[in-house]
Amino acid sequence: MFLKTVLADGNAEKQVIREMKQRAAQARSDIEKIVAAVMEDVKSRGMEAVREYALKFDGKEPYVVSPETIDAAYARCDAKVRDALERAAANIRDYHEQMLVRSWEYERTPGERLGQAVRGLSRVGLYVPGGTAAYPSSVLMNAIPAKVAGVETLVMVTPPTDNLSDAVLTAAKIAGVDQVIAIGGTQAIAALTYGADWIAPVDKIVGPGNAYVAAAKRMAYGTVDIDMIAGPSEVLVIADHTANPTYVAADLLSQAEHDRLASAVLLTDSMAQAQAISAEMERMARELPRWDIIRESVDGYGCAVVFEELRDACDMANLVAPEHLEVVTAEPRQWLPYLKNAGAIFLGAYAPEPLGDYMAGPCHVLPTSGTARFFSPLSTDTFLKKTSVIEYSRDALERLSDDIVALAKCEKLDAHANSVAVRFAIT
Q1: Distance (Å, whole) CA 116 – CA 71
Q2: According to the model, what pLDDT value does residue 26 have?
Q3: Which tens digits make up the pLDDT trace of 23-43?
Q4: Which of 192, 401, 421, 425 sits between 20 and 30 A of 137, alpha carbons compared?
Q5: Element (H, E) at 392
Q6: Is the torsion defined by CA of 259, 261, 267, 270 positive or negative?
Q7: Cα(376)–Cα(371) distance, rounded to whole angstroms?
Q8: Residues labelled catalytic
């Protein structure tokens, strides 16, 4: 069969999980050595080093893309694409406005006021790949939550190709990006991290990139914050006998075409369904332009696992913790309480994964490689910082003073104890 199929027996499905998680572990020592040298050089020499690496790797010095250039790209952009980007942006903005956390305060007792100040980050950098990997949807998905969160300055960096993508620049304009700088690769991440002359350092760097960009973001972490290190794309589909095989096959292929390490996995309680979906995948895949990539992806990391009960399929889904999880069953919502680990869950035959990639509104920047066990999708929370606020009256502090002094002395921090004691003549 096109999609290799195994019967769940307690061991077969565990092997599938191991293979999925191992695919993201690739030797990267050579890349990290190169990236570390560039990062350190930019940190030491600033713009001089940035220009040298930009000329070497990009073929051009970094420059600011003018508002006039962006406006011209917006005007040139295919009207259907531009309109679709506008509608997608409206949906993304609407969704993220619903989840926005705001500052709050409360009075616990008279004179005892507590709260949290929630503010957007001051300056954020957004990396956007160039060349053939131009994804305007990713610009919207990263930039709009940042602006909804209240980020003051959002700087987009993208490699200075001969013709910057009209769609990418259009997305930047629609999303409210404040500045676009034509610079790519490790030197872009280094400049955003440490600052380089007219490129000011940022507080956080988000956005996808190649292995060099990913390594640079790992090294930048700690000096600045980052969103996450994304692994290969993945989809896991739970389908019962009522699912339309053509729909499910198409959804599995939509992830397999991403790259050769992408993973497309089907969990079902019907061998006949697994066979039908596999046959549909092969039929459709042969007609798709990225057939070679799909074939390698499916051969390496695609499979179907057949269970006796779909409840067991839910348990496997939680172990995999996939980036995308589709539930295509007679009553998909009934399984939602059992599904704890996933970047995004798509319920029903008419919620295919590409809906989330482009138009629904939730961000398509999702945890991969099992990290959905503890990471969340990119959202307004990604761009917020929270500060505790504490305000006490004299009487309120005095009520707690003996306890504070006792705990401070227990920890042998006498100056801590004294800080309270001097206010109330405590001995």
Answers
A1: 40
A2: 53
A3: 655 546 788 999 999 999 999
A4: 192
A5: strand 384-392
A6: positive
A7: 9
A8: 323-324
